[in-house]
Amino acid sequence: MPHPTARLRRGALVAVTAGTLLAPLAAGAVPASVPAAFAAESPSPSPPGPSGPDVRALTPDVARQLDASVQRVMREANVPGVTVGIWTPGQESYVRSFGVADKASGRKMAPDLRMRIGSETKTFTVTALLQLVDQGRVGLDDPIGKYIDGVPNGDRITLRELAGMRSGLFNYSDDDDFFKALTSDPQRPFKPQQLLDYAFKHPVLFEPGQKFYYSNTNLILLGLLVEKESGQHLGDYIERHILDPAGMKDTLFPTGSEFPTPHAQGYTDQTADGKVTETAGWNPSWGWAAGAMISTLDDLHIWARTVATGELPDGNRMISPETQKQRLMTPATPIPGAGYGLGIFNVEGWVGHNGSLPGYESLTIYLPATRTTVVVLLNTDIDHDNEEPSTLFGQAITQIVSPRHIFNLPAAPAAR
After folding, report:
1. What pTM did the predictor assign?
2. Of the chain's two ends, which shows fewer C-beta atoms within 10 Å, N or C?
3. For 10-401, which CATH class?
4. Domain segments of the chain: what residues?
């Protein structure tokens, strides 16, 4: 995902690449070749690691190690506030908040605060797509041109390639004019077609399926597809068919800059002059289906397992087993140790997604081997030594709790 200048940073996971929405603003991507065929029908196995259990019990000693490690990353990366949740069935849970939610008032970070989750939005948009697949309304190997006109290579780019970041379409958040428009007026609203216009003025980067390249443009198209085939606004569809069945009462898809309280203030340097500024009032409509959503620690705890397994908390299915199997095919990417499936990644056995947009970062991952969930929420997206803070936290946490499965998503050059 090397991109030129601005970063609407990695909202999405692979964040490093993927997680970035702004390329930084939102969506980091990494152009590079990947195997043409999916590498596996389930999350790719992790390489052999140190001997020992897949996940360590959360004893008081382990909790103290986590406290110290999280606070060390905070100091080194200058993170104002962070909340961490770790859960494994049958074990003690770990839920901690450190630092401040608002530097001006000194208000403390807390586990119940709402946070912007950036590219984790992609997991919801792709879930909506997969539900339409289950209903027989669309097919993963249908070309996007069957549903939406005006897409370059639209007669050959499939829905699968859009969801898997292998379309070859330019990432609109890497466009200079888009970056200038956003940073000159962060409260301005963007419509989906405006975002596509920024992307489509650029030539396609490669033939469909040839490479992995993280592009928010793909998700805008999938969001429009969901609206067209369901007859509902994307946010309404996600609320009714995904959030309500999962019991995620504090998660929402905003229509503008609304941000229900209590929430944390966000801090970014993705500004026109490069100075750090507050972002809670910014309008996330520029991320739309790729990065606009808001959630909480408890709701993301629910979502981690739901998106990784396709199963709802009540035992019913969000996605059929057959379609979920397609989602979890995670072919290799240029990122060492990371595969990317249909709106989901696998990093050393951890399945999920990250998110980043100006002022906020998040990480929601699930380890199927032990049914362990890790959620990290923080109120800055400012890189530290070219690394995303969410990745630094993920790495520090998993080094302690799952030394055989260390989450590490090296940051790619910021795209802007």
Report:
1. 0.91
2. C
3. alpha beta
4. 10-401
